[in-house]
Structures
1.
Amino acid sequence: MTEKKKLIAGNWKMNGSLQANAALLQGLRDGIGQPACNVAVAVPAPYLAQVQALVAGSAIALAAQDVSQHEAGAFTGESSAAMLRDFGTRYVLVGHSERRQYHGESDAVVAAKAKQALAAGITPIVCVGETLEQREAGQTEAVVKRQLAAVIQANGHCISEIVVAYEPVWAIGTGRTATPEQAQAVHAVLRAQLAAATAQAGRIALLYGGSMNAANAAQLLAQPDIDGGLVGGASLKAADFLQIIAAAQSNQA
Ligand code: PGA
């Protein structure tokens, strides 16, 4: 795991405006320099063009928050992977718990979205995670393995090209973070599952997400199987996001 760069990805969710985005990215550009880790921001689709221009020539990569499971056609409201690619999108979130929960995305749909992204040369950040009820019922491992298995099955040898984000649903936006030990335990399960599917499992970045912030990032990122973070709320403040990036760099071998 020593040679792999960590990845810190901000998930802006449905936040931002032309003005706020410009200010946030200016703050990030002013402070980021040439980081030793990879950095991305996942922005709302209407702002892809704006943010593509604002991150040009910087160390910040562009990410989208969702992609259609279809290639093209009569799917009103959807954005295809090729469209995201047109704006220089490097990563796309698939299967975020808010998509699974509020938009009824099944494991099969998430797997199809990952496939569309890979076909367009975009790295899917596949989100998995259990609800509080599932954790309390002792189902954490079974749930995340089921969610990841669908993506592995649909994507064959391309699976080494994905990024996985473990985001316990009970930790998202709640201020309740998984402990480094809880997160590491699940990451180890995911790593083993990937290792059974590909000889390249060691190079797949496994991110943790769920109330990661400037205060807790360093400890989480020090875990052997935590290769980065998917950061929601704390990615909306330049100073906080820069501190998380700094924590990733100091954990970089
Ligand atoms: P949070 O969100 O950092 O605000 O908990 C993380 C996410 O949903 O990706």
Note: The chain has one domain: 7-250.
2.
Amino acid sequence: MPAAFRAQCVAVGSALPERRLTNADLERMVETNDEWIVSRTGIRERRIAEPGTGLSALALPAARQCLERAGVSADTLDGIIVATISGDHVMPTTANLLQHQLGASKAFAYDLLNACNGFVAALSTAAAFIESGHAKRMLVVGGDIMSTLIDYRDRNTCILFGDGCGAVLVEAGPADGPGIIGFELHSDGAGAADLSIPCSGSAEIPTPEALARGDQFVKQNGRTVFTAAVRRMSEVCVSLLGRLSLTKADIDLLVPHQANLRIIEPTATRLGVPMDKVVVNIERVANTTAGTIPLALADAFADGRLKNGSRVLLVAFGGGLTWGALYLTWGRA
Ligand code: UT7
């Protein structure tokens, strides 16, 4: 049965911590150098929150900016989903804290864990709520305080990540209007060990030995993840476009997860999308995990590239392993 509504993406907001951690700063912390980091990743600096900052401290200003741009008040929200792997706590969820802080009195709220694919998964979930008539207006937040999950003695990972958060407001609109046209999500748990935080749940408790090993931090088999990301990101885009009977001519903006410029460029090349249609902000904010896509959307909105009617392809890949793509036309009917 065709959906009665389409999920319109009507506004975006974002928030970054003030403090910049540059490649020069990292040169003083581990054996690395600016030339290696820029040539291997495209990253020049990342934002780092002050110790003790919960994700809600970024989610709240991002959400407020988003709601203000949309011209709606928080008490009209039906639901809030926060995609993150570094929420304030496991319980209560960051979405619950945000719901209260925003005054979203009638909204249900929960966090969604899907690592770097978290925002695409959360936006897909919101689309399903709206298309099925279970919600009319939802706030989808993606963000991480990755600095709490990174070992700043490990040069393999500490150069890659930063902190940041973004939010998108999704509303029910006419089924033939603008909005989320389609999405595709995938997982392959066989690659679980290639990107993980071993001591982050029930399987491994934080004993002094585990903490001494640094098991509370991100571990990554970089080369393996890199190869899988390049393959899976283009594969899922080609599959989604094919299913929707769309071509590269239907893409005004490609908004990829920002893990490595050397992953973004081949993804664009394989899709035949020129780099001037690709939103890249990795040089300034690095990999903020669930934050990359909403932060990139916010940058594209700020520089005028994301506007009413823009046809946008989102794509992400990350720990799990998980990946997904989502195609939308931006703005209200
Ligand atoms: O967002 C979630 C998904 N994550 C990703 O998509 C990340 C995927 N992986 C990557 O982006 C890349 O694999 C990295 C950027 C992590 C690494 O780049 P690479 O070209 O795959 O380098 P490598 O790990 O194969 O390391 C090459 C060399 C090694 O030295 P040897 O063994 O060749 O002597 C490393 O020890 O570079 C060395 N190296 C460094 N050198 C200077 C590793 N990290 C650094 C560093 N500075 N920070």
Note: Residues 32, 36, 40-41, 116, 155-156, 159, 222-223, 225-226, 229, 259-260, 263, 287, 317-318 surround oxa(dethia)-CoA (CB under 6 Å).
